[in-house]
Design a protein that fits this description.
By secondary structure, this protein is an alpha+beta fold. It has helices at residues 23-38, 121-134, 145-160; strands spanning 43-45, 55-58, 66-76, 80-85, 95-100, 102-108, 114-120. The protein has a single domain (9-160), classed as Alpha-Beta Complex (Peptide Deformylase).
Length: 161
């Protein structure tokens, strides 16, 4: 399982719903956690590893590993926070992004059980970041245009090395 990097059209496609949460999907989520750990990340979405389905995983230090299948963000707070983000698909590039401080999300876990979660702080941010990947959005899309252009030039320069 390889991480797809910025510039690939695969990161711009809207992910498809998972119809059946099978043992195969559960096994796939375990592989996603292995890739996440290997790359020292805190979140990873299916499209980032070439699987154009609505699944992402999170693992923030001090929190449990979480699998989100067919997620829906139900509510976002009006209170926002600015925080520096990076992305495994855009290695070496970091930028401040404004996101809702608190969210409510509904999803299914790797066992096919539905759950609702209210998240805040870093977990809320990671969920929103990974959810964006399911919508074909990368974090650079949430950065002001001039800053985004500079970051893309920097990324292109770094990736040629």
């Amino acid at each position: 399982m390889e991480i797809i990097t910025f510039g690939s059209e695969a990161l711009r496609q809207k992910a498809q719903k998972i119809d059946i949460i099978s043992e195969e999907i559960s096994g796939f989520s375990k592989q996603m956690f292995e890739v996440l750990k290997k790359n020292k990340g805190i979140g990873l979405a299916g499209p980032q590893v070439g699987f154009n389905k609505r699944i992402f995983v999170t693992h923030i230090e001090g929190d449990e590993e979480r699998v989100f299948i067919n997620p829906s963000i139900l509510e976002t707070s009006h209170i926002t926070a600015k925080y520096e983000e990076g992305c495994l698909s855009v290695p070496g590039i970091y930028a401040y992004v404004i996101r809702s401080e608190t969210i409510k999300i509904q999803a299914w876990n790797e066992k096919g059980r539905p759950f609702n979660l209210e998240a805040n702080g870093l977990l809320a941010r990671v969920i929103q970041h990974e959810y964006d990947h399911l919508e074909g959005v990368v974090f650079l899309d949430r950065v002001p245009e001039k800053k985004r252009e500079r970051l893309i030039l920097k990324y292109d320069k770094n990736s040629k090395k």
